[in-house]
Amino acid sequence: MGNYLIKALAYKEQVRVFLVNAPNALNEAIKRHDVWPSAASCLGKIMTMGLFLGANLKGDEAVTVKYNAEGPIGSIVVDANANGDVRGYVQSNHINFVNNDGGLNEAMTLGNAGFLDVIKDLHLKDFFTSSVEATGNIANDFTKYYVESEQTPTLISLGTLIDVNNLAIINGGILIQLLPNATEEAINYIESKYDILKKMSSLLQSSSLEEILSMIFEDGEIVGRLDIKFSCPCNKDRFKEGLLTLSKKDLEEMINDNKPIETICHYCGEKYEFSVEELKEILKQKGSK
Ligand SMILES: [Zn+2]
Fold it and tell me: Which of 16, 53, 60, 185 is most buried, with most CB under 10 Å away?
């Protein structure tokens, strides 16, 4: 079950609905970055939001979400694209706040006063960047983002469940947006479903995305589907390009240390080693430029 996203139109095509459940992508991030439970729950929710934003893009457009509410977890960074690829990491991975009832405490993990930045790469001259306050309530903060930056009234409900083995059983949610032709009636209808929508974790556990859609809307019509996977396009060449941007002096110092250097991809944790010979080669290339 899970690991895909559906796009649908509903309520006489006055409403756009995205639904996703993709625990595998979160589990890949948990494993790669050794993320502890309450931090994993927060990362999962930002990944879900990244997937919603990505699903609205076209071709090879991409989006980066940076969420930092100044709490112990620091920044949460997620990249996603229109093909269902997602990757992400947290600044501090070994964070776990648990309530007395055993539930994970996201508010303490996240903090309550910072910024949510959404950076879209639409292959135009500049990136499209917009920023709203991050208050530690991820769904509310993104609702504000959609209203303020995309002028789209949006309802978001997110659900993540991390089990005792620190693995995600579910990770996903629903995004409901009013299209420009939406009537007052549509708004009232969605509000009347709010009690169902709030229980996203149990809904995602018990029902498929298609079932959830039909629980909320009688006329939900699926118009798109994406398979979701954790995917990072990094490779050694990209890190070589990075080394090429260093000064000759820095490269010479590395070579004089006479030890290989290791570079790490923040997004996926993959390590790439450069031998002293390779560093000399990079210095030579730089010299010939
Ligand atoms: Zn990577």
Answer: 53
Cα 160 to ligand 1 centroid, rounded to whole Å: 24
Residue 157 three-state SS: strand
Name the pLDDT band for 288 (thresholds 50, 70, 90): low
Is CATH 3.90.1280.10 what the domain over 236-287 is classified as, yes or no? yes
CA of 33 to the centre of ligand 1 (A): 11
CATH architecture, range 4-230: 3-Layer(bab) Sandwich (3.55)
Centre of ligand 1 from the C-alpha of residue 235, in Å:
7
Q: Report how far ligand 1's centroid is from the alpha carbon of 267 (Å).
A: 5
**Separation of CA 45 and ligand 1 centre (Å):** 20
Ion ligand 1 residue ranges (Cβ < 5 Å): 232, 234, 265, 267-268, 270
pLDDT tens digit sequence for 42-94: 999 999 999 999 999 999 999 999 999 999 999 999 999 999 999 999 999 99
Q: What is the pTM of this model?
A: 0.94
Q: Where are the domains of the chain?
A: 4-230, 236-287
128, amino acid identity: F
